[in-house]
């Protein structure tokens, strides 16, 4: 049984064959990659282009998170496997969009709308996962709520991109919410790492599940 079963982190106990908890790895890979891209999207730091996140998207947010998802499959955890594998694939697909650019020039408005459709799909998927967290804990529920809002603002930012400037007010708002999302993901990762066996204290995540009588 895994730490992300039924939308939970760091609470379930593993049974034989015993494997390490893959959730903190997946969450850290997601958090760091999201944080760097969101810093760019928010416009708070003058980063040259989203290409700065390429390495992270390929290897940490992409490969490492995808592996965490595979290990969640091994642990029999459907929610964790679906979430980590999917967002690992998201980052790999994002990296591929940066790597494999069209040979012929593309109209900026057309490219922006195409990116908006791409992000809209992920907004819907993230909202579906958010609906599956209502009986998990506040930490995980908050993570998927803010991630849904992040994707929503980024989607709107692409659909309402009026010129060749890729960062508008909506995209900046998505960047701010993305930073918040990354911080929440790191908090949940730390909550999964701080166990009674490894730490003198733990972090609360506020369980929302109904215990069976």
From TrEMBL:
Pfam families: Gpr1_Fun34_YaaH (PF01184). InterPro entries: AceTr, Gpr1/Fun34/SatP-like, GPR1_FUN34_YAAH. It is found in: Membrane. GO terms for cellular component: plasma membrane. The chain crosses the membrane at residues 20-40, 52-73, 79-100, 112-132, 138-157, 169-189. It is a multi-pass membrane protein. GO terms for molecular function: acetate transmembrane transporter activity. Coiled coil: none annotated. Keywords: Membrane, Transmembrane, Transmembrane helix. It comes from the Eukaryota. NCBIfam families: AceTr_1. Belongs to the acetate uptake transporter (AceTr) (TC 2.A.96) family. This is Ammonia transport outward protein 2-like. It comes from Rhizophagus clarus.
């Amino acid at each position: 049984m895994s730490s992300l079963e039924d939308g939970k982190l760091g609470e379930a106990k593993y049974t034989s064959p015993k494997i390490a908890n893959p959730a903190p790895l997946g969450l850290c890979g997601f958090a760091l990659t999201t944080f760097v891209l969101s810093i760019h999207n928010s416009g708070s730091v003058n980063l040259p282009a989203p290409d700065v996140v390429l390495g992270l998207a390929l290897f940490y947010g992409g490969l490492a998170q995808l592996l965490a998802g595979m290990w969640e499959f091994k642990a029999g955890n459907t929610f964790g496997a679906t979430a980590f594998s999917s967002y690992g694939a998201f980052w790999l697909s994002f990296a591929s969009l940066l790597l494999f650019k069209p040979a012929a020039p593309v109209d900026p408005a057309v490219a922006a709308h195409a990116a908006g459709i791409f992000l809209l799909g992920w907004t819907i998927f993230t909202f579906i996962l958010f609906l599956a967290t209502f009986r998990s804990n506040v930490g995980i529920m908050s993570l998927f709520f803010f991630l849904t809002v992040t994707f929503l603002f980024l989607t709107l930012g692409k659909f309402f991109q009026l010129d060749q400037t890729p960062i508008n007010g909506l995209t900046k708002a998505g960047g701010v919410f993305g930073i918040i999302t990354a911080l929440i993901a790191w908090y949940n990762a730390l909550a999964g790492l701080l166990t009674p066996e490894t730490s003198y204290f733990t972090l609360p995540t506020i369980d929302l599940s109904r215990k069976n009588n």
